[in-house]
Every structure is written in structure tokens, then in C-alpha cells.
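Forgive a beginner's question, but would it be possible to get a protein, spelled out as residues, together with the matching C-alpha cells, please?
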Amino acid sequence: MLVVAPGVVSLGWPDVARRERTAERAQEAARKAVSDLARYLAEYVGDPAETEPTRTVQVWSAKSRSRMTRTLAELDYEPLLRMGLRLPMTTLTYPGDWLVVAPTGKAVKKHMTVFYRRFGRAWGFEWLGIWKLEFQRRGAPHIHLWGPQPQGLAGDLRQVQHAADLLAWEASERKGRKPYSRSALGDGLPYREWLSVVWADIVAHPDPEQRRRHQLAGTGVDLREGERMTDPKRLAVYFSKHGSYGAKEYQNQVPVEWQAPGCGPGRFWGYRGLERAAAGVEMTPADAVFVARTLRRLARSQGVTRRVTVQRVNRRTGVIRYRTVRRPVVRLGNGAGFLCVNDGPALAAGLARALERQGQDADAERRAAAAAEAKLARLRLAATARQASRR
């Protein structure tokens, strides 16, 4: 199955038997869970589903990093571009004494939910875009947002709508209740100032000095960095850069205070208001092998490398030394995987032309082989006829 998206081309080999085995294991696990729950309710009092979680998260997993890269390259960004607004990189941080206001990952996600709600109320449309959770060296979480920067002043659209409601109410001879509009924090401020005031109010540190400092330096808006995202691949690579195994790997390490059961960060990344745009087509095994080889060569030509730590053992002294080296990244090594590209449909069109040419070449080779076999058969027949005439 070849899947094409705006910024990614992926190749997969569906295993129907494996899917059936997975479904059977899921059914067996469900039956066992029901049996265990019935036995528990029969012998004890309470619900085992209400027990405390035991899973702890210490680092952002490699599988989640790969899934984020592919997902961001598959998203349809037309809703964002259709708005006609600038798309900066917005950063939301926490004060110095951050554990008071963010003791767990759930508290941070709750702050983000409140931020989305206040954004929609202040600017008249829902926030949509991509977000990524990271950690500073001091352990404090901070959030990167790539989304629209509203124009004008906060609350202007709401005031215009209120004025229109008042006119409609007066035109209807004042029937029903009079429209009421309540002002909100940050009304009348441009986006940058509104962001600083509202985010400090959402976090709401109880210490006045901490809150004052947080309002002064708790947010950032980088237009230059955001406008460098000119295609899905650049956007996916930018966010995956924060998740790469490099010098800033500490940004993906969960602080010790969040490593207790039930205190983890939850999801490290996500998107809001966007949908995936991908289309797939089935291929023959021979065509899939050709496409996999082509994509693998294309990935190798890009020269992508990654940092790895290797060890060297001195055979005479036994001393182990570690050093960091860069190794080439292998894509589609086993014939399946995905490749981030700047223009997925264009690459798919090129692959289609290559497959068509390969088919034409194969047909030409088959015709040449058939002609050679026919010629050889005629020569053999002529030789047999000459031998018969000599006899």
C-alpha cells in the first residue's frame, strides 16, 4: 500500500494474518478482563478500575517522535493558510517556582484548554495549529505553538457583534431580554500584550512577585521562525528537531517531580483544528519493491545523519571510552516505512512515471526475449531440415 500525503510518502505491507491474530488476542484479553472484574466484585467491595495508575513516563519515546513527524507531514494546512494571518511560533513558559502551579502534567493540559477557550472569546475564532511540550534545564515545562496571530485588538469582534445584537433588539421593538456583553481580561490589547496578560492570569501563581515576573517574560512570539515553515516537511522537521537525539535532549526528559505514577506529562505533542489528507493505492509486490528501492536511494541522497554514542574498548587495558559519532539514517530498510518530502503529490507523480517506464521496459524486454526465442526456434528447425535433406 502506497500512501501519499502533502509532505510524506509511505509504503506498507499489510499482514492480514497478523491483524487476525491481534484481533483474537484483543478479544481474549477483553474476556479475561470481564472475568477478573466479575471475580473481584464477587469477593471484594469496590471497583478495580478506580485504582491508582502505576505507569511512569521518564522520556519522550522514539515511537512517538516518529509518529509525530509522519502525522505533521500528513496534515492539511489549508484552513490555516485560508485565514490569511501570519503564523508565528508562540512559546508559553512557567514561572521560576513552577511546581506550585504545575505539579502534574494534567495541570499543564488544563492551562492549555483554558488558553484555547480564552483565545476564541477574545479573537472570535478558535485556535488551530500544532503544539509541542518540552522541558527546560530547570525542569519547568514550556509549550511551543504554531498557529495564527490575530490582527487588531482583543475583544473588538465581540464588541461589534454586541452592537449588532443591540440594533436587532431595538429594531424588534425591544422584545426579549436586552443583549448583554461582559468585558474580559486583555480586551483592547494587541496579540503580544494580550498573550502575556492572559497566560499569566491562566497560570495564576499565588506569589505576586513571581506572577509579575511571569507576565513580563512568560511568553514569546517569533514571527521569523514561524514564517520559515513553507511546506509540510519543513514544519515536521522543525518540530522533530526538538525531539532529535542531540545537544538539547534534556528538553525531552521528564522532570523527576513528574515521574511519579499519575503525574506524567501525557502527550508530548498534538494538533488542533486540522485533519489529515492522505490517499493510498494498492500495488503489486514487484512494483512495491521498485518503489521502496527508489525511495531508499532518494533518502540516502539527502545525507541525513543522526548522533549515536559508541564505545571503544582498549584490549590491552580494558578501559572503555565513549564518543559521539554521526551515522547515516536508513529509511525503508526493510521495504516499509515513510519518507518526509517537500511535495508528496509531485513525488508520487514521478514514481508513477518511473513505474510506467519500467513497465514499458519490461514489455520491451519480454518482446525481445520472445523474438530471440522465435529466431532460435527457426534456426533449430532449419538445421533439422538440412540434416533431414542430407539423409
